[in-house]
């Protein structure tokens, strides 16, 4: 393991993201995931600034059993004109019980004069006083030098003085912050190298992503000699976010060969990224490097044909190193190799069956011309493939005689929909009705009610998402509607697609596929 600090600030700077609101229990749960990932430090929040963060540190002492990480409390240097020992916010840092305190301090002369409205000398005294007080209280102190890069550009000497003041007072690390996120990698590298030459500080880096360079800037700082790197899981943070710590760690470990976290822990990165998304209620970003659902998903036929020979031909690294998977996407950009590899992913060996591969490929391309989209509806593709490989009969769980739906509005009441579905299932003709707050909801209820005597396994299925897109005349002479439905069995979910001139008919197709796939997935035999 290298001695480079991996410092996570998801619970403090990440929580400054618009729309993100974490309860104390959420923060404790995220901290446990971060510890599992193997980060060195977890910045838990700003005790004293709000009751939630104060409570987090109080509960953390009893409820968090950290195996790897050290908890850090974040706060600011003491108030102008006061002294650290009497400053209630500084006292709250001591009372938090955290062994590490990270202090944000001004290092930009203009900010001292205009935002802090004090003298340059007083700001240096605030740094010295607060750091030495906390050291005297037995705390390790890291200093976040706010607006360091912008400050260095306008007054290098003062920015360096701020760093020296912190180190002389006992700060272990000075993290140079690109607070406004406006830097580019060459600027960061030059400044870090100069500060290392000019001071005796151990330097850290804290980057925001306003130029889209937060990860690159963090890497540049490490290359230039920084040995402490800050970031947030999934790049959460104020404005455009912070450096995504998962990307930074993966880059440093996989590309630079630095041992930052134990290998088995890095293999949990994808799962942990998604578990934290569940807690923050911020949908995972599918194109997130390394851990995104699309990070190793291949759509182009030419890519698939080379991947068949060796996945390294179209992948920058092995997805399993970060716990992700390679996936084939099937669409009108697929070739036979894509179908073969997708078949392999689904458990079918189609190698050499050129006739079948061509037939499936032609069907996919024809359907995509009509508006279907199989890369967003894996389950509908799997049913199409299975019908070709195993035969229709294996998936004919029921026969649809007819369906209809009406929507009724009375007076001021909300409109209600009622559907009737007639099917033959398990050798019986069943007529069932269902109500819903919309026509698709009503059809879903009616269909599952009609099928439940023959297939009680369907009870646990739930329609969890429904998306509609009107496709323009490029797909034919008239506009058509594409419906994507996501169905869940409580532990996993799948997407199906329907396309028709009529929105309800398109929805019906997607619903039928969703239910059929649920039965196939559960291994239910046709009854
Ligand atoms: C770059 C960053 O992201 S740093 C982290 C920023 N995070 C947050 O601000 C979230 C938590 N903040 C809070 O809850 C509140 O702002 C508090 C409790 C810290 C302070 O609240 P208030 O006392 O009402 O002050 P307010 O927020 O209006 O202004 C901040 C004060 O801190 C001062 N200040 C700013 N930076 C520093 C610093 N590094 N050291 C000391 N004082 C500072 C400002 O000059 C201002 O002083 P003033 O009250 O004399 O004008
Ligand atoms: C400290 C911090 O969050 C910043 O300067 O961006």
From TrEMBL:
Catalytic EC class: transferase
TM annotation in the entry: none
EC code: 2.3.3.21
Domain of life: Bacteria
Pyruvate carboxyltransferase domain boundaries: 4-267
InterPro entries in alphabetical order: 2-isopropylmalate_synth_dimer, AIPM/Hcit_synth_CS, Aldolase_TIM, Aspartic_peptidase_AS, Citramal_synthase, LeuA/HCS_post-cat, LeuA_allosteric_dom_sf, PYR_CT
Recorded catalytic activity of this chain's protein: pyruvate + acetyl-CoA + H2O = (3R)-citramalate + CoA + H(+)
A Gene Ontology BP annotation from the UniProt entry: proteolysis
Biological pathway: Amino-acid biosynthesis; L-isoleucine biosynthesis; 2-oxobutanoate from pyruvate: step 1/3
GO molecular function: (R)-citramalate synthase activity; 2-isopropylmalate synthase activity; aspartic-type endopeptidase activity
Keywords assigned by UniProt, alphabetized: Amino-acid biosynthesis, Branched-chain amino acid biosynthesis, Isoleucine biosynthesis, Transferase
Family per similarity comment: Belongs to the alpha-IPM synthase/homocitrate synthase family.
Protein name: Citramalate synthase
Protein source organism: Pedococcus cremeus
């Amino acid at each position: 393991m290298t001695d480079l600090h991996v410092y996570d600030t998801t619970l403090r700077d990440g929580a400054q993201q618009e729309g993100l609101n974490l309860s104390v229990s959420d923060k404790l749960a995220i901290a446990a995931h971060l510890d599992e990932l193997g980060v060195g430090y977890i910045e838990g929040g700003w005790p004293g600034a709000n009751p939630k963060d104060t409570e987090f540190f109080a509960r953390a002492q009893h409820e968090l059993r950290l195996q790897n990480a050290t908890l850090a409390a974040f706060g600011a240097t003491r108030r102008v004109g006061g002294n650290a020992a009497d400053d209630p916010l500084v006292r709250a840092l001591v009372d938090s019980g955290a062994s590490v305190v990270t202090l944000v301090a001004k290092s930009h002369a203009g900010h001292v004069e205009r935002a802090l409205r004090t003298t340059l000398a007083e700001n240096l005294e605030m740094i010295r006083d607060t750091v030495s007080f906390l050291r005297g209280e037995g705390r390790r102190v890291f200093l976040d030098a706010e607006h360091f890069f912008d400050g260095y550009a306008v007054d290098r000497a003062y920015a360096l003085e701020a760093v020296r003041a912190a180190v002389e007072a006992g700060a272990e690390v000075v993290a140079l912050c690109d607070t406004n996120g406006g830097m580019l990698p060459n600027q960061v590298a030059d400044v870090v190298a100069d500060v290392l030459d000019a001071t005796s500080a151990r330097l850290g880096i804290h980057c925001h992503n306003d130029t889209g360079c937060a990860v690159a800037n963090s890497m540049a700082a490490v290359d230039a000699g920084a040995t402490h790197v800050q970031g947030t899981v999934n790049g959460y943070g104020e404005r455009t976010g912070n450096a995504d710590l998962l990307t930074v760690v993966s880059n440093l470990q996989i590309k630079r060969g630095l041992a930052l976290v134990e290998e088995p822990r890095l293999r949990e990165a994808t799962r942990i990224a998604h578990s934290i998304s569940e807690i923050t209620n911020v949908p995972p970003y599918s194109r997130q490097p390394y851990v995104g659902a699309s990070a190793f998903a291949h759509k182009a036929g030419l890519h698939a044909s080379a991947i068949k020979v060796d996945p390294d031909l179209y992948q920058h690294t092995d997805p399993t190193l970060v716990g992700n998977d390679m996936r084939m996407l099937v669409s009108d950009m697929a070739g036979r190799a894509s179908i073969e590899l997708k078949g392999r992913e689904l458990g079918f060996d189609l190698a050499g069956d050129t006739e079948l591969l061509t037939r499936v490929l032609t069907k996919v391309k024809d359907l995509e011309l009509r508006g279907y989209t199989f890369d967003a509806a894996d389950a509908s593709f799997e049913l199409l493939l299975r019908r070709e490989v195993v035969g229709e009969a294996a998936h004919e769980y029921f026969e649809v005689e007819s369906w209809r739906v009406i929507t009724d509005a009375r007076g001021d009441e909300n409109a209600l929909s009622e559907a009737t579905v007639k099917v033959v299932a398990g050798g019986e003709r069943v007529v069932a009705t269902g109500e819903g707050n919309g026509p698709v909801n009503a059809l879903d209820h009616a269909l599952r009610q009609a099928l439940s005597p023959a297939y009680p396994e369907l009870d646990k299925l739930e329609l969890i998402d429904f998306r509609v897109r009107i496709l323009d005349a490029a797909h034919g002479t008239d506009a058509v509607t594409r419906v994507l439905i996501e169905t869940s069995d409580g532990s996993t979910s799948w997407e199906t697609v329907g396309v028709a001139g009529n929105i309800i008919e398109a929805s019906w197709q997607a619903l039928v596929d969703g239910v059929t796939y649920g039965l196939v997935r559960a291994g239910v035999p046709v009854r």
